[in-house]
């Protein structure tokens, strides 16, 4: 459906998120700490329903798209900055969050850091 030369952008959750893993480990919730690593997905509860959620590394995603797309950019999101569900930390430590945002801006295109945040943005271009 995407024309040759056109772009495709996706925000994807990778198999490893440092923030999420650390948060679950600190609360002794070990199965959730490693839920992203399950090859058959994880049953996420959303708005009263259940959705099987899969987590894809940039490498596995590119393998699937490589025959038809070239990778243009890959940007890590939520590598050092806390995810939105850490609202208390965000409200009580605005200076720390600003510092983490600055650090993230410096590192968000750096492998392997760009692949271990809460999400990553991948930009692909359809081959001609």
Average pLDDT level: 94
Q: Order of SSEs, N→C?
A: EHHEEHEHHE
Structural class: alpha+beta
Q: Approximately how much beta-strand content do the residues carry? A: 25-35%
Please count the helical segments.
5
* CA(first)-CA(last) distance: 13 Å
Portion of residues within helices: 25-40%
Radius of gyration: 16 Å
Q: Segments where pLDDT lies below 50 for 5+ residues?
A: none
- Strands side by side in the biggest sheet: 1-5-4
What does the model show?
- With 128 residues, the chain is an alpha+beta fold.
- The chain contains 5 helices and 5 strands; from the N terminus they run E-H-H-E-E-H-E-H-H-E.
- It has helices spanning 18-26, 30-33, 58-65, 87-92, 94-107, and strands at residues 7-12, 42-46, 49-53, 69-77, 119-126.
- The strands form 2 sheets. A 3-stranded antiparallel β-sheet has the order 1-5-4, with helices on one face. Strands 2-3 form a two-stranded antiparallel sheet.
- The longest helix is centred in the C-terminal third of the chain and has 14 residues, at 94-107.
- The chain is globular, with a radius of gyration of 16 Å.
- The mean pLDDT is 94.
Give a short overview:
With 128 residues, the chain is an alpha+beta fold. It contains five helices and five strands. It is globular.
Q: What labels describe this entry?
A:
128 residues; two-stranded antiparallel ribbon; alpha+beta; three-stranded antiparallel beta sheet; 26% strand
Write the layout of secondary structure elements.
Blueprint: E1 7-12, H1 18-26, H2 30-33, E2 42-46, E3 49-53, H3 58-65, E4 69-77, H4 87-92, H5 94-107, E5 119-126
Antiparallel strand pairs: 1-5, 2-3, 4-5
């Amino acid at each position: 459906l995407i024309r040759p030369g056109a772009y495709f952008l996706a925000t994807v959750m990778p198999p490893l998120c440092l923030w999420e893993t650390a948060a679950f480990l600190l609360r002794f919730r070990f199965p959730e700490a490693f839920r992203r690593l399950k090859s058959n997905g994880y049953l996420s509860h959303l708005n009263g329903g259940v959705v099987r959620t899969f987590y894809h590394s940039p490498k596995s995603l590119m393998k699937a798209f490589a025959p038809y797309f070239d990778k243009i950019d890959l940007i890590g999101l939520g590598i050092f900055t806390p995810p939105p569900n850490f609202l208390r930390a965000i409200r009580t430590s605005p200076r720390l969050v600003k510092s983490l945002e600055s650090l993230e801006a410096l590192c968000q295109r750096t492998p392997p850091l760009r692949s271990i945040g809460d999400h990553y943005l991948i930009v692909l271009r359809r081959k001609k």
